[in-house]
UniProtKB/TrEMBL annotation:
The keyword Transferase applies. Keywords: Aminotransferase, Decarboxylase, Lyase, Pyridoxal phosphate, Transferase. GO terms for molecular function: carboxy-lyase activity; pyridoxal phosphate binding; transaminase activity. Its cofactor is pyridoxal 5'-phosphate. This is Aspartate aminotransferase family protein. GO terms for biological process: carboxylic acid metabolic process.
Length: 454
């Protein structure tokens, strides 16, 4: 099964040809989902005792199955948070696989971890955290948030041993991503969401919420989560005033920038993140706005040692990694995963190839596209802008439309292979949401989508 024969060489060429075609195709077909029974009817059972043959399996994938997926890098995919991995990063994802490197410990992965750490050094520099801060790549924002919050919880229990058996309590703004509540559940912690008068949370509101906690809850409070770019609307909490409150109250300050983190590199909006340099931990998803292929998140800590205390795994067969000869940075020590892919390597290669200036330009382009869309919405009498664009998100309404109209419009565009744009909710009402990531999206793409709303 692992030996090389001519068939495999030919297969490899086929696969490489597909890959090259796909990488160079900037407008891949926008596939649509099919029912599982329909797919099964077309391709048949694929796992059999004798195997169906590589060529056959690959053909089924290329001709049928991939067409039942939506390419996230399509320039008219503006739903959720799309992605647009650079060609360089995708190529290097293949290299990462082919190199078979274990990314948990320096002893085995040194050269690859070196690459990841080079990319991480740049990410950390964007945050302006003090000397000594560092981070590690994770499977995504959810895992990064969990890793950070577990570190916060362990530090809280260490500081207040009388709380060793207490459930922790988290405070976050209402705009916090669903993964925060979800990870609180995993940690068996409680979460309270703070309603804001404005569209973002500020220190004053946080202070009020803390003051309202009873003595027991105040003791259980172990972290505050602010959001650096809400996923729904691109809104950034007032990080500097929140940081001050956390410092005064001695509470862990986590900033979730899974979506917005790329914008730390954009000079036009960097000031909106002031205060992030005081965070105890930060989440950034390179697979969102830093053009990495799935999956790649990052968690950054002001004090890396606290993460190590929380996450370093112990086991008889792991002891060798802590040995003198293996000294170096062990990614397994700073997040929830042990065996791990070197998922920061594609980002490293792409950054090394293009330079950080190109990244800044590509991120600024997303912000520009949002502004452009905002102007077009404003000047279209059928449409109503809901709020000014923020980062790369624009929310607006089609006059007279109900929730069903938005849904039908979404399905129609998707079915026709034209675009994927999904509705969202804003203050309880249905809206259309554009989220721009792909710098190859054009003004014409925006015009074409808006025309379907006339
Ligand atoms: C997307 C997102 C997450 C979750 O990240 P995954 O990579 O999907 O796990 C968390 N927080 C925010 C603000 C996000 O936008």
């Amino acid at each position: 099964m692992h030996t090389i024969d001519m068939d495999l060489v030919e297969m490899t060429l086929d696969v490489m040809k597909y890959t090259i075609d796909r990488i160079s195709n900037v407008t891949p077909e926008l596939g649509s989902p099919k029912k599982e029974e329909d797919l099964l009817r077309i391709v048949g059972e694929t796992i059999t005792p004798e195997g169906i043959g590589g060529e056959n399996a690959f053909q089924l994938f290329r001709d049928v199955l991939v067409k039942a997926t939506v390419p996230i890098d399509h320039p008219r995919h503006l739903a959720f948070v799309p992605a647009a991995p650079t060609r360089a990063a995708i190529m290097f994802d293949l290299v990462t696989s082919a190199s078979s490197i274990h990314g948990a410990y320096w002893m085995e992965g040194a050269g690859g971890i070196f690459c990841e750490n080079q990319a991480m050094k740049w990410l950390v520099s964007l945050t302006k955290l003090p000397e000594g801060a560092f981070g590690v790549f994770t499977s995504g924002g959810t895992a990064a948030n969990l890793s950070a919050l577990v570190t916060a919880r362990e530090e809280w229990r260490e500081t207040y041993p009388e709380c060793a058996k207490e459930r922790g309590l988290l405070l976050a703004s209402t705009g916090a991503h669903s993964s925060i509540s979800s990870m609180a559940k995993v940690m068996d912690a409680d979460i309270q969401l703070i309603e804001s008068d404005n569209e973002y949370m500020c220190g004053k509101e946080l202070q009020e919420a803390i003051s309202k906690l009873n003595e027991k809850d105040r003791k259980r409070l172990f972290a505050v989560v602010a959001t650096g770019g809400t996923t729904n609307a691109g809104i950034i909490d007032e990080l500097d005033s929140i940081a001050e409150v956390c410092k005064k109250e001695n509470i862990w300050f986590h900033v979730d920038c899974a979506y917005g983190g790329g914008a730390l590199a954009a000079n036009s909006v960097r000031h909106l993140f002031n205060g992030i340099e005081q965070a105890d931990s930060i989440t950034i998803d390179p697979h969102k706005w830093l053009f990495s292929p799935y999956d790649c998140g990052a968690v950054i800590y002001k004090d890396l040692e606290l993460a190590k205390k929380a996450h370093s795994q112990k086991g008889a067969y792991l002891e060798i990694f802590k040995d003198e000869g293996a000294q170096g940075f062990n990614p397994a020590d700073y997040q929830i995963q042990l065996t791990r892919r070197l998922r920061g390597m594609p980002l490293w290669f792409s950054l090394a190839m293009h330079g950080t200036n190109k990244y800044k330009e590509a991120i600024e382009r997303g912000i520009e596209l949002a502004k452009l869309a905002e102007q077009k919405v404003k000047s279209n009498e059928n449409l109503e802008l809901v709020r000014p664009s923020s980062l790369s998100v624009v929310l607006f309404k089609r006059n007279g439309w109900s929730a069903e109209d938005y849904r039908d419009w979404t399905y129609k565009n998707h079915r026709e292979g034209f675009a994927l744009v999904t509705p969202s909710l804003w203050k309880g009402e249905s809206v259309i949401r554009f989220c721009f990531i792909n710098p190859d999206t054009t003004e014409k793409d925006i015009d074409m989508i808006l025309e379907t709303l006339n």
